[in-house]
Amino acid sequence: MLDRFKVPLADQVHVSEAALRQTVAAIFEQCNLTPEDAAIGADVLVTTDLRGVESHGVSNMLRSYVQSYQKGDYNPRPNWRIVRESPSTATIDGDGGLGVILGPKAMRIAIDKAKAVGVGIVTMYNGRHLGAVGHHAMLAAKEDMVGMCMTATQPGVVPTFGAERRFGTNPIAIAAPAKQQPPVLFDVATSAVAGNKIGLAARVGSNLLPGWITDKEGNPIMEETPVLPRGQYFQLPLGGTREQGSHKGYGLALMVEVLCTVLSGAIPNMLESTGAKHYFAAYNIAAFTDVDAFKEMMDRMLEHLRNTRPAAGQERVLYPGLSEYEEEQKRRVHGIPLHKEVIEWFAGITRELSLPPLQTLA
Amino acid sequence: MLDRFKVPLADQVHVSEAALRQTVAAIFEQCNLTPEDAAIGADVLVTTDLRGVESHGVSNMLRSYVQSYQKGDYNPRPNWRIVRESPSTATIDGDGGLGVILGPKAMRIAIDKAKAVGVGIVTMYNGRHLGAVGHHAMLAAKEDMVGMCMTATQPGVVPTFGAERRFGTNPIAIAAPAKQQPPVLFDVATSAVAGNKIGLAARVGSNLLPGWITDKEGNPIMEETPVLPRGQYFQLPLGGTREQGSHKGYGLALMVEVLCTVLSGAIPNMLESTGAKHYFAAYNIAAFTDVDAFKEMMDRMLEHLRNTRPAAGQERVLYPGLSEYEEEQKRRVHGIPLHKEVIEWFAGITRELSLPPLQTLA
């Protein structure tokens, strides 16, 4: 992630993975989730924080999840069910359950279908926030598959030339295993910048960059700007302006909407607010080629990418998932840095729910 | 497409769809293709020109295809075969055959598998140029499926922060049917601009825009620039710079490389020049939801997109495939405008191959 979004050192408080996992699971249980589901939710969020993806970890998301459970917007005990099925596909009614927790279950179904017939594709409607889509894609990569995941969310993004919001930040993830190299894990919003990054920018007092948002009339703002008040701006698709390719970001957002929403038989949020819809895909590598040969070729390609001569002034060339993998190794040892505001929120919520406080590292 | 790439009126010569189809098929037959394959090739190219996608129609591509057949780089009678298969997947050795012609055959296999088990995914290695990937995706949409198609091509694009080419323009297409509205047909390069558009810009004497290419050292050129000589520049991923999201374009290019190349058991072109690799996907809508309901929901969504209030100074909001559909209606009636240089090339090649000349409209 860009340095501008990092929590400043002076505002960091470190917590261990184990302590965070325990407290997050306990909070989910107090929201009336089963212990099994609470553990899944904690695993998804804490793994995301371990990878340094603050925008989708506990700091940005848990607070809003708890509020949604408390308001009754999320169903803590969803009776999710498959409403249509074929050997390689399933369509699921998520019954208002949090996607963070139903995502791994849906991807499991996709993986099992891929084992049986080569590929598994699962769509889910009547869903809620999916968390980091990359997490779910990665579950397939751990089973020697290529995993993909997408989610169609609440509108905040204009189409190219438009002055009304039509799409969510509709992210796309793909994960693929390698042998020695860290796996590829690509996970990006189809908007110019992820919605949660705007929240992070506000928290750390950072400006938004040119081409990230429009003014109220849909005109792209092409200079740096502080975060505007809610309702005073729209988000731009990846590309920013038409000449820089915003029609590509717009088309990708539409692709996500078709595969997540329309293909699952649901109503797009641009027409009616109907919750999030998701897409999960697992490609069984062995159905296409030799698994070992695939992983060795991934190694060769990823090494070649890392060895690309950097442009003047650049330190090195990365690939998607590499720096997050490196961050994870560090954080497993040294703990996860949370913003002091987040620590304060934990203090409040654990008190409110009569839970032991979150343990922090010295 | 941007106006800057349109053939200037004074340089246009119109030809009918039927005349162009006949001459293109005759040229392919002279390259030793079977009449059936020649007709498929002509259909793909002329359909692309009808949609106004000059970059991938006869004007930009046929000349290079004929040269490649004449040099022996393309196999006119490929003995393509399925080397691995499962109920929902197939991996094909393309035996050096032109993708324009093998693409519809591969997509047919994907469609048949999707009819049988819900989804069909076909990869092809040892392939050659695929033409407009959107054309192949559209074949599935015509069968009440969602179609996707991608191709991994010769490197010309740097990864973010890099100063060496690693990826082709690796385009992605998705097509989905609607009921009354023209279908969605999204077809874009994952580079800031399609490689063929650089050729078009050179032909019509247009500048390249900021964020489209780098200099020799990998530095993004952030002002307008004439097309530089070959070897003096690299292409940038969609997004242009890291802060504008070039890591997203880079990641999408890598995704295409994984799904087309590594999943088919082949060597990426960044490591060894091994021809193009392709990916074809067909999702049988009926396996997920009711087909009529799907199409009606597509209509509602696409109408809503078209009715989006435009930003100040913009005429209207489009969706991917809409303006190409409109162009197709016009060109079916009024003919296809070709650049006079292209007409001259046709005059030369038909003479060389002892074929009747291409008939032009008055």
How would you describe what is shown here?
- Two copies of one chain form a homodimer.
- The first copy, chain A, has helices at residues 17-30, 35-50, 58-71, 99-117, 133-141, 195-204, 246-262, 285-288, 291-306, 322-334, 340-352; strands at 12-15, 81-86, 89-93, 119-127, 145-152, 172-176, 184-188, 213-214, 234-235, 276-284, 336-339.
- Chain A is built from eleven helices and eleven strands.
- In chain A, α1 runs antiparallel to α2, α2 runs antiparallel to α3 and α4 (99-117) runs parallel beside α5 (133-141).
- Chain A has one domain (3-289, 298-352): Ribosomal Protein S8, Chain: A, domain 1.
- The model of chain A has no long low-confidence stretch (mean pLDDT 95).
- The first copy, chain A, has a seven-stranded mixed sheet with strand order 2-3-4-10-5-6-7.
- In chain A, β3 (89-93), α4 and β4 form a beta-alpha-beta unit.
- The radius of gyration of chain A is 20 Å and the shape is globular.
- Chains A and B meet through β4, β7, α7, α8 and α9 of A and β4, β7, α7, α8 and α9 of B.
- Summarize the helix and strand pattern of chain A as letters: EHHHEEHEHEEEHEEHEHHHEH
In CATH, the topology of chain A is named: Ribosomal Protein S8, Chain: A, domain 1
* Number of helical segments with 4 or more residues of chain A: 11
Total count of domains of chain A:
1
Largest sheet of chain A: 7 strands, mixed
Helix content of chain A: 40-55%
CATH class value of chain A: Alpha Beta
Q: Which blocks of ≥5 consecutive residues of chain A have pLDDT under 50?
A: none
CATH superfamily of chain A: Malate/L-lactate/L-sulpholactate dehydrogenase, NADPH binding domain
